[in-house]
Amino acid sequence: MRQLTKNLTKKANNLPLAFSGIPLAAESLFDIGGFTVSNAMVNAWIAVAFFAIIAFVTSRRKSLIPKGIHNVIEALIEFSMKEIQKVTEDEGKTRRFFPLVATIFFFILFSNWLGLIPGTGSIGIWQEIHGHLELIPLLRPATSDLNLTLAIAVSAILTTHIAGVAYKGGFKHFSQFINFRGIFLSLKKGPMAFIVSLVEFGIGFIEIVGEFAKTLSLSLRLFGNVFAGEILLHVMLSLFAYVLPIPFIFMEILVGAIQATVFAMLTLAFLVVASSDHGHDEEHDESHEHETIEGTALQAEQH
Amino acid sequence: MDAETMQLFAKALAIGLGSLTPALAIGLIGMRAMEAIGRNPEAAGKLFVPMLLGMAFAEAIAIYALIIAFTL
Fold first, then answer.
1. Among A175, A215, B35, B67, fewest CB within 10 Å belongs to which?
2. Who among A220, A258, A265 is closest to B67 (CB)?
3. Is this prediction's pTM over 0.90?
4. What are phi and psi of A186, to 5 degrees?
5. How far is B53 from chain A (nearest CA, A)?
6. Pick from A220, A227, A265: which is nearest to B53 by CB?
7. In the CATH hierarchy, which fold is given to the domain comprising B10-71?
């Protein structure tokens, strides 16, 4: 750090300034014994400290009638549980999925909104890189770092697998992906069923690729939205810093809330799909087919 | 045409072409949502969140194209 401030005092004369935009990777601020701390990491720590303080403050002085901040928190929790209940339609599942989904929602929402506070991305240290001076901001939105969004996405998808094993049993859950059991069962039913089971075995492998695609899509969606928003705000503020950026800052507030909702809702949907029993599709399909054929025949008769 | 020029072209085409279809998709989702609200104005509250979800999915594809444009 002292090296950098020395550069600041002797900088200006011969070094051109470079405003090359925001780098894709979060800039590193300092090292703690070999572990690099980046500016997005500092923002994430601020978010964690905020939630820890709120949790500590609200866990003391519990009373039957809530007042003050307890009111706000209870309202938020009730609202979130109602929304989650609409998707899961099962009390037990709502209670078990609520901590993860609500944490994802509130953490991403707070991190996105924290990146809009003036000073994030503009207060920094001038440093000499490749012959010109660049500004290294001290603060940067936490979710504009692909590392953070990838970590949240990986932990969410891992939890869906754990939920699948917990609700359906390990063997049944993994036989969705590697389906030897289906092949053995279909040997009794005849050659047509055997070929179908081979096709389903191939589909199982494609499902594995689908899991990686889900992780990548979750992380890239959030990262792309927040990073592009950051670049947009930088460009708008450097064009004309006084009234012009207001609609864009509003849009960033909206985008931050929408992306947090999308991430949390998707995680919830994956959890519900993984924990529900949809392996009996073949037997149900035939009975439904008969129903609809009869139904349409009846309707045709009535008309 | 040297490598740097081609890189510039690749960046521009990536985001230019890659945002055509997501824009169309978002417009179609909005159109159907407007039609449904027009038929049944009381359902506007129920339609809002699924419409936003669908639009966020469609927009994600444009974001993938934007990431390619940035990382080239």
1. B35
2. A220
3. no
4. -80, -10
5. 6
6. A265
7. F1FO ATP Synthase (1.20.20)
CB A274 within 8 A of CB A164: yes
Token code pair at residue B12 = 């521009």
Say how many domains are in chain A: 1
Q: Are the C-beta atoms of A130 and A75 separated by less than 8 Å?
A: no
For the record, the structure tokens of A239 come out as: 């064009």
The rounded mean pLDDT for chain B is 90
Question: Looking at this predicted complex, what is its ipTM?
Answer: 0.76
**Contacting residues for A147 by C-beta, under 8 A, at least 6 apart:** A26, A40
Nearest-CA distance A224 → chain B (Å): 6
DSSP state for residue A26 in the 8-state scheme:
P
Residue closest to A262 by CA, chosen among B26, B59, B32, B25? B59
CB atoms within 10 A of CB A230: 21
Domain coordinates of chain B in residue numbers? 10-71
Token pair 């036989």 is found at: A175
The one-letter code for the residue type at B16 is G
Domain enclosing residue A125, as ranges: 30-278
- What does the pLDDT read at residue A150? 96
Count other C-beta atoms under 10 Å from residue A184's C-beta. 10
Q: Is A34 within the bounds of a domain?
A: yes
Express each pLDDT in A24-72 by its tens digit: 888 888 888 888 899 999 999 999 999 999 888 888 877 777 677 888 8
For the record, the structure tokens of A114 come out as 């924290």
pLDDT over 90 percentage in chain B: 54
Q: A243: helix, coil or strand? A: coil
